[in-house]
Amino acid sequence: MDAVTNHGAFRHDIQGLRAIAVFLVVAYHAGFGFSGGFVGVDVFFVVSGFVITRMLSTELNDHGRVNFRRFYLRRIRRLLPALCAMLTGVLVLSMVFTPLASQGVTARTGIAAALINANTYLAHFAGSGGYFGLGSEANALLHTWSLSVEEQFYVVFPFLFAAAWAVSRRKKTSRRTTANHPINMAILIAVAIVSFVASWLLTSGRVNPSGRGIDIAFYYAPFRAWEFAIGAIIALFSTRMATISRTAATSLSLVGIGLLTISAFIYDDNTLFPGVTAVVPVIATALLITGGGSTVTNIITRILGVKPLRFIGDISYSWYLWHWPFIVFAAGLWSNSSLAKVVAAGLSLIPAWASYRFIESPIRARKDAPPRRTLALGAICVALPVLASFALIGTHRLLNNLSLFAPFALHSDVQRGCSTPTPMGMRTGLDCRWETPNPRGVAVLVGDSNAGQFTEGFVLAANSIELDADIATQSSCPFVDLRLQTWSKENTTCAYFVAKTMAHLISIKPEVVVIASANDGYIKQPYFSFRSPDGKISYVTSEEKAQAIEDGLAHVIRILRGAKIRVVIVHTIPKFEKWEPIAMAPIRIIGPSHWMTATIAKSTALGARQTAFGAEKRAADESGAATLDFFNELCPTDHCSTRANGIWIYRDYGHISVEKSRQLSATFAQALSGK
């Protein structure tokens, strides 16, 4: 949308502000120095509210009505062709460049984006984790959520504004009613307050429908409406902006750029957002728009209006469209390269410029396009991405049938539903026991997904020595007597799982219990922390968490040993950070195996697990448990590798493959038999 205007003048500073906004978003997505760069989206929302309200106000003041047909036809020509080109192109390219595991969600997001509803789809149907989730970065169309929010705003706001105008005309106190009538202003302020309060309630968790309150606040247009409304309110004051003195305008602009800089550098993925924290970038944008509205320019306005920033502002819509798919493609090809994302973000300027030059500008320049032709163009712009989405879904199914991911299959505990928060002894309808004829007892494997990765080898070993095998795992839940917290939020299912499973184990008295957990990850990763079982003590630092795990594991072992149950602790295995085959592009998977293989020095792998290994060893020694270490089997040379002797050793960065699990059965059998 054009950067309309004070008294008909084109506002170059608005284009510069758009340039700052898109640069923040692109830099954040590329991992280039702005941990809070996502606030650039909020800048766009405020600017859009300002620009569209100025446009509607001018039309109402000049003609006394809103020409809805002309407004929506302009929006179709302005937004849909460039969006259609990006969606169609990205969906086609995704057949080879988007990670196979995310092709389905990318295709469905494409359909939703074409129907201006990507935000709703992503809020409810794209899996857990939302925008900042661990898997969200593999969706090449994730960024379209904000475009859908803006488009929904364009659909609704003109009617709201026209309705407010009609009310103000009925209540008019003078011969002429203008767009900035107090009633118009009061309605916008009321919308802003209601929307903001609702956003705050959802983000803070005070209202949390289906446990997705923060996702709803983040994605849904009604809970972002206050940001547009702030821009709209400023627009109604635009005539007064012109009279602001140079000193006042400079002060407002300096404070605005300062607040925006602070939020871009201080905020990060852990910031509770939107809600109250979104106020800072929104107010910053409002101050910059206000300061730039004076007839007397100031230093910030002049900087924002320089030619390079105006150019980026001109192509900001197209750059936003293309930057994220390029970053996702780069990550799929070079998953361990941070530089690849930065380079990809820069290269995305090429299709962005091309889109602006050959699609946006020519179509926008046609002021006299017949309505039927515009509507036909809009229909084509919806149909093409939808067709491309179905083509991607078909390609995804074809690639799956080629069994590209067979070496990286999920382990049997997951496939049988045995990896669940439901504790052992309370599970119904699950086939989590692998039986052998005439068993002399049962062996049980418990822990998190790092226990589940041993399922096949454990089952073969147990059955080979005439033991039935039971599996009870819960992902991201260490089998220790502690209360786990993730991002400072307690995982209540974990402590419950451990306590109830322990009670069941004591009641059935198995021959042996094998415990395995990714304790190195819980110690190393800052988003994990622990509390003591009574909740009185917190363990946050790596040293505190290591000691807590040692004590919590020792307590579990002592209870089991007190019930005359043998216990085996499996030490953590070598890890390959950021190595995720399911996040790799199909073209990379189809290629030579060395394109995918990752290696790490054995000394590095040993050092990475040293703290966890020590805690596990001391807990076992103190409490009478045996230990089992597969490190040398997984890393027999000076370098550990994800592939060796013609098979994949690992299925992802921290879990071995099904085939390798089977190969560990002989070692497991010795440990289970107590030899």
Features:
single chain, 675 residues, Rossmann fold, six-stranded mixed beta sheet, 29 helices, elongated
Task: Report what the structure shows.
The protein is an alpha/beta fold. It has two domains: 397 residues, no CATH class; 205 residues, SGNH hydrolase (Rossmann fold, 3-Layer(aba) Sandwich), CATH 3.40.50. The chain contains 29 helices and 18 strands. It has a six-stranded mixed sheet with strand order 3-5-4-8-11-13, with helices on both faces. The chain has a four-stranded antiparallel sheet with strand order 7-6-9-10. It has a two-stranded antiparallel sheet with strand order 1-2. A hairpin with a 2-residue loop joins strand 6 and strand 7. Helix 1 packs parallel to helix 15, helix 7 packs antiparallel against helix 8 and helix 9 runs parallel beside helix 12. The protein starts with a strand and ends with a helix. About 2% of the residues have low confidence.
